[in-house]
TrEMBL record:
Protein name: Flavodoxin-like domain-containing protein
Sample GO molecular function, one term: FMN binding
InterPro entries: Flavodoxin/NO_synth, Flavoprotein-like_sf
Chain ranges of the Flavodoxin-like domain: 3-136
Length: 136
């Protein structure tokens, strides 16, 4: 089964979780769509602020290659900032287009407030047409 893991990470925790999930999917053909902020902390915060203001110019090339058509399962992983996923989550889902017939899983990395974020992520992915089969 072709699987895409689309995730955003700033500190590495979401990436590690995505990799752990992929390692458990031994009979799946897994690809990644990573959005990873690197560099000094202040640079990461500035980029996150751009994303929150819907400026995705720094990752536009990557976003333009995003195509979910060939995948059977799409896994979305996001951190939680201020009780919500980062704005880049909405952009990734939007760029994937119609997800009708796709199965999806959503996960987030949060210390305390993950439940509402998962509900939001699930609703957004279902709005795009996918069937969310699990969340964590």
């Amino acid at each position: 089964m072709k699987t895409l893991i689309a995730y955003f990470t700033m500190g590495g925790r979401t990436k590690k979780t995505a990799e752990a999930i992929a390692s458990a999917l031994t009979n799946y053909e897994v690809s990644y769509f990573p959005v990873e902020l690197t560099g000094k902390f202040i640079e990461k915060i500035k980029m996150l602020d751009k994303f929150e203001n819907k400026d995705f110019s720094a990752i536009e090339t990557e976003l333009n290659t995003l195509d979910a058509a060939s995948y059977d399962l799409i896994i979305f992983g996001m951190p939680t900032y201020g009780n919500k996923p980062p704005q880049v989550f909405n952009e990734i889902v939007a760029r994937m287009g119609n997800l009708s017939g796709k199965r999806a899983v959503v996960f987030n990395t949060a210390r305390f407030t993950g439940g509402k974020v998962l509900d939001y992520m699930k609703a957004k992915v279902e709005e795009a047409g996918a069937q969310v089969i699990d969340q964590s």
